[in-house]
Amino acid sequence: MTTETQPKRTTEWSSNFGKPIEEQRFEFILYINDHIICQRYFNIRDYNEDSIQSLEIKELMENICGMSNGPIGELGIIPKFLKNKSVDYIWNNYNPYNIQPDQGTKNIYEKADNFQFEIKIDKKMVAKAQFTGNVFPPKVRYAVDIKEIIPSIMSEIRHFLSQKNYTKVESNVTL
Q1: Does residue 52 contact residue 160 with C-beta atoms inside 8 Å?
Q2: Alpha helix locations (H) across 29-141?
Q3: 130 within some domain
Q4: Domain span at residue 71?
Q5: Residue 25 burial by Cβ neighbours in a 10 Å radius (0-12, 13-18, 19+)
Q6: Model confidence, pTM
Q7: What SS3 class is residue 47?
């Protein structure tokens, strides 16, 4: 009787579809108050180096985490997701028979809760944006699970960083 042993697969290789983490140059990180919510590594086919010094990188960040894009104030991918979660939360906890005493108006900006979003290439930050989380209920902003929008975020990043032509930004700032 012979038995064949299967080689053991390590989580480092199997979780990235056969590619080690070191080969994945790109990453995005979502924080709330400097605490990591989500961090993902990925690759971009046909990456264009000119995209980093372009006007389109600003448009990319607005598409992902902008709070008032366009003439009618559209939301980016992450704020739109949080808004939908807020609406679900509010309707699930709505009770028309529960009368609460009038407590006056509350200042929702008394304690600032800010979301930050970063894009890194080769461990170097190339873009960062921030938006307020105070407009969302505390139960929503402290229990963020963005698994379902990760493909949309990565798709948006891949689209903008792999275009052929960009609007070059000239700057006089020296670092």
Answers
A1: no
A2: 56-65, 77-92, 138-141
A3: yes
A4: 21-93+113-161
A5: middle
A6: 0.77
A7: coil
**CA dist 24 → 20, 57, 69, 109 (Å):** 8, 20, 31, 38
Query: What's the number of domains the chain is made of?
Result: 1
In single-letter form, the type of residue at position 113 comes to D
The continuous run of DSSP H or E covering 38 comes out as strand 35-42
Q: What mean pLDDT, rounded, does the chain reach?
A: 83
Checking DSSP bridges between strand 26-32 and strand 124-132, what pairing results, if any? unpaired
* 166 domain residue, yes or no: no
DSSP string over 117-146: EEEEETTEEEEEEEEE-TTS-HHHHTS---
State the DSSP H helix or E strand holding residue 30, giving kind and residue range, or none if neither: strand 26-32
Let me know if residue 76 belongs to a domain.
yes
- Condensed to tens digits (0 to 9), the pLDDT of residues 49-95 reads 888 888 889 999 999 999 988 788 889 999 999 999 999 999 998 88
171 belongs to a structural domain: no
Higher pLDDT among residues 30 and 5, named by residue? 30
Could you tell me the CA-to-CA distances from 54 to 62, 160, 164 in Å, in that order? 14, 10, 12
| pLDDT reading at 159 higher than 90 | yes
Other Cβ atoms less than 10 A from the Cβ of 28: the count is 20
The pair of three-digit structure tokens given for residue 74, joined into one six-digit string: 């559209």
